[in-house]
């Protein structure tokens, strides 16, 4: 059954504009935590030369991704795979790019740690890891809406919460990656791009 995530309707065009600059022309894009599958559908349609591999840990999300994909009839969306970002074993051994929206703050730290470590394993030199979501930046005042969102996340699960960019940068460094771009996005979100060194 298809799921609908209203935020994807609001943020997909700005995300697509950044990805058009950062993704390779061809190859395999591994999407981590694809959720409803709406981003995969929208982005794959705009990058016909890229194979798009959606993944999620949740079974209902995988069913939604499959339903959206079946309806779209796009030849470059691969069947969704179950993937636990915190696992040391991913079902995709190699990718030319990784895109991940809204995972790091809605998961325990182990998921973020696993995401960066996994990206270091499967990406080749120069390949991008593209992260979308809210982050806490040094010397930048956190927007009140993000502070409220952070409190809401922690009330649902104390292990959740908006992460500091420095924490993500350090994980990337350990995985052999370096942050190359920061894009300000609508609704106080960011896109951070890391590339394998």
Q: Number of DSSP strands?
A: 7
So how many helices? 6
Cα-based radius of gyration, to the nearest Å: 16 Å
| General shape | globular
Uncertain regions spanning at least 5 consecutive residues: none
Mean pLDDT metric: 91
Sheet with the most strands, sense and barrel status: 7 strands, mixed
Order of secondary-structure elements: HEHEHEEHEHHEE
Proportion of beta-strand residues: 15-25%
Helix content: 25-40%
Strand order of the largest sheet: 3-2-1-4-5-7-6
| Alpha-carbon distance between the two ends | 40 Å
Structural class by sheet pairing and helices:
alpha/beta
Per-chain topology:
Layout: H1 6-22, E1 27-32, H2 38-46, E2 50-56, H3 59-72, E3 81-82, E4 97-101, H4 109-122, E5 128-133, H5 144-156, H6 165-174, E6 177-185, E7 189-196
Parallel strand pairs: 1-2, 1-4, 2-3, 4-5
Antiparallel strand pairs: 5-7, 6-7
């Amino acid at each position: 059954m298809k799921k609908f995530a209203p935020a994807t309707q609001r943020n997909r065009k700005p995300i697509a504009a950044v990805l058009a600059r950062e993704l390779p022309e061809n190859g395999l894009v591994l999407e981590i935590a694809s959720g409803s599958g709406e981003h995969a559908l929208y982005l794959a349609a705009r990058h016909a030369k890229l194979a798009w591999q959606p993944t999620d840990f949740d079974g209902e999300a995988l069913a939604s991704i499959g339903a959206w994909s079946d309806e779209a009839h796009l030849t470059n969306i691969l069947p969704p795979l179950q993937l636990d970002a915190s696992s040391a074993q991913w079902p995709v051994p190699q990718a030319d790019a990784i895109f991940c929206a809204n995972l790091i703050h809605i998961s325990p730290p182990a998921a973020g740690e696993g995401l960066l470590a996994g990206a270091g394993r499967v990406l080749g030199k120069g390949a991008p890891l593209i992260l979308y979501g809210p982050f806490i930046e040094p010397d930048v005042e956190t927007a009140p809406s993000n502070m409220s969102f952070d409190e809401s996340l922690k009330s649902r699960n104390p292990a959740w919460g908006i992460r500091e960019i420095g924490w993500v940068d350090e994980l990337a460094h350990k995985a052999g990656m370096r942050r190359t771009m920061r894009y300000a996005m609508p609704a106080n979100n960011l896109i951070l791009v890391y590339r394998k060194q």
